[in-house]
Amino acid sequence: MHGKSSFTDQIEETLIAFLLGVMTLVTFTNVIVRKLFSNDPPALVEFLGLENIGLWGGELTVFMFGWLGLLGASYAVKKNAHLGVDVVINLFGTSARRKLALVAVAVCIIYSLLLLKGAWDYWANFANLPGTDGRWFPLGFEDKFRGKGWYEVESVPNPAILGWMEGVFNDGDAYEKMPRLVPYLVLPLSMALLLFRFVQAGVAVWQGKTDRVFASHEVEDEIQELQDQMGDNE
Question: Are the C-beta atoms of residues 169 and 179 closer than 8 Å to each other?
Fold first, then answer.
């Protein structure tokens, strides 16, 4: 289904690996600083600006955990890891199974489009961008919208690398905390990736590379286990 590995094949893996690494580092540092240096942090901790990590480390970890969950949806489509119930489609021949799979993937694509529209409309105002017109599907962009680029998170400080956002989204005023548009970016990003993966799945079905969107992995595992047991008995 995916063929030779490419950048698009590795988007989720790269982001998930990065998030897991940062989550582990932040959590470990948080514990060390709070338990060992809560009263008198050394100069290195102060130089790195980590003396208050106990205040913002938890919120940052929650944001990254949310990113993991949302990105995991498209990653599971790519890896065919979502649970599937194929007891009905297994009653049909290959041609009928492909047609049913195309119907299923079409429903998934429509659903992903709805999610993408809602995700964009929610995130866009935090980036001073217009939401979309249309109740269900985008029919264009709003002429008037209320920019919320000045909204900040509760406690995570704004890193220096994101200082350029102040002139773009906050009229040049400094952010005391990270702008909310940064962690919320995962909403349209993850839904766009989910749509992309379902389109890939649909192409694979159309080309005859598979006859279903998701397989029933639990059944496959049980069958394999039964075959292994029968082989051992022989």
Answer: yes
Instruction: Name the strand (E) or helix (H) holding 30.
Output: helix 11-36
Give start and end residues of each alpha helix (H) in 39-185: 43-47, 53-78, 94-124, 165-169, 181-184
Q: Is 66 helix (H, G, I), strand (E, B) or coil?
A: helix
Residue 166 contacts by C-beta under 8 Å, 6 or more apart in sequence?
172, 173, 174, 175
d(CA 115, CA 113) in angstroms, rounded, equals 5
| 42: phi then psi, degrees, rounded to nearest 5 | -70, 170
Tell if the pTM clears 0.85, that is, is over it.
Answer: no
Every domain of the chain and the residues it spans: 8-233
Which contacts (CB < 8 Å, 24+ apart) does range 7-11 have?
8/196, 9/78, 11/193
The pLDDT tens digits along the chain (234 residues) read 444 557 777 888 899 999 999 999 999 888 888 777 666 667 766 656 677 777 888 899 999 999 999 999 998 888 877 767 777 777 778 788 888 889 989 999 999 999 999 999 999 999 999 989 888 888 888 888 788 999 999 999 998 899 999 999 998 999 999 999 999 999 999 999 999 999 999 998 898 887 777 766 555 555 566 566 666 665
Neighbours of 67 (CB within 10 A): 22
Residue 196: what are its φ and ψ, rounded to 5°?
Answer: -60, -45
User: How many whole angstroms separate alpha carbon 222 and alpha carbon 228?
Assistant: 10
Q: Which residue has the tokens 């582990």?
A: 24
